[in-house]
Specification:
The complex is a heterodimer of chains A (143) and B (138).
Chain A lengths: L2 H15 L4 E7 L4 E7 L1 H5 L1 H18 L6 E5 L12 E8 L15 E8 L17 H7 L1
Parallel strand pairs in A: 2-3
Antiparallel strand pairs in A: 1-2, 1-4, 4-5
Helix pairs in contact in A: 1-3
Chain B lengths: L2 H18 L8 H23 L1 H7 L6 H16 L4 H23 L6 H22 L2
Classes of the chains: A alpha+beta (143), B mainly alpha (138).
Chain lengths: 143, 138
């Protein structure tokens, strides 16, 4: 499995299993590490997330680790490593839901949708329908 | 001198360096980060070498990218052996990779290690030692 495919698996798994988390990505050239930051911290520290991450570690070891000198690590708000210049940011945001007659539905009727930022050419393959190119304004809000 | 002894020595050196922090002529934080990471890494290698001999022999033929692979392999072995502590071992994995990254940054880049960084490094180092002690008794 290539690192790109692995990272795509990480993103899709995160979005599916933890739909409310925000995700940032940055590759650190010094340590050759693909850092994925997940917020909020409470989710990162939860048993469910640790179990999810353990599965990713198993996949990394089985499919990727022996084929690369690069590494992969998930961090959060309170971690030692922080992403100073994330190359990708993914933020869940509520999408306004409307009834058939066009009336805005109540807050509880909202569905969760996603906006995201992606501006690294080497990650073109990572783009999914949920990942859209964002404006610099969105980026500054996200960063 | 065993890797376990070296790991212990690096731990003690970390404590000494962080106790002094810096003097008028020198800052010890970078060296402290170096010692913290190697204290953990040497203990992991010792565990792999002594308790997962075949895996160690197989990996030891590699000449590049060894730190990443050794850490991932050892963590994988520990998670398989101590299933009830799998979540703690996952925490070790994520913290060790961060220690490795900050060690490389502090050793090779123009980046200053802050007191806040050192506090976090110490937290990770102590958590690593506690979990390894509780699982492997080392």
């Amino acid at each position: 499995m290539s690192i790109r495919v692995f990272l795509e698996t990480v993103y899709q798994g995160l979005i599916k299993s933890f739909p409310d988390v925000s995700i940032s990505y940055q590759y650190d050239e010094c340590s050759c590490t693909h850092f994925v930051k997940v917020t909020p911290q409470q989710v990162y520290e939860s048993d469910a997330f640790l179990d999810f991450e353990a599965g990713l570690n198993e996949l990394w070891l089985a499919e990727v680790a022996r084929t690369t000198e690069e590494d992969f690590c998930i961090v959060s708000t309170d971690s030692l490593i922080q992403l100073k210049q994330p190359q990708l940011v993914y933020i869940p945001e509520p999408i306004q839901a409307f009834s058939a007659s066009g009336e805005e539905l109540e807050q509880e009727g909202y569905e969760i949708g996603y906006s995201s930022i992606e501006h690294i050419p080497e990650f073109e393959g990572l783009t999914s329908p949920e990942f859209e190119t964002a404006t610099s304004e969105q980026y500054s809000l996200a960063a | 001198m065993s890797l376990l002894s070296k790991s212990h020595d690096n731990y003690c050196t970390f404590l000494l360096l962080t106790e002094h922090g810096e003097t008028e002529n020198a800052n010890f934080h970078t060296a402290a980060v170096h010692c913290a990471y190697y204290s953990c890494y040497q203990k992991l290698i010792f565990i792999l070498k002594e308790h997962y001999t075949n895996r160690y022999a197989e990996l030891n033929t590699r000449t590049s990218g060894t730190h990443n692979l050794f850490i991932s392999e050892c963590v994988g072995c520990l998670a398989g052996t101590f299933k009830k502590r799998a979540r703690d071992i996952t925490k070790i994995n994520r913290q060790l990779k961060q220690l490795k990254a900050i060690r490389q940054k502090s050793d090779y880049e123009d980046e200053k290690v802050s007191i806040a960084d050192i506090e976090k490094v110490k937290q990770y180092l102590e958590a690593f030692r506690r979990i390894i002690k509780e699982t492997t008794n080392l």
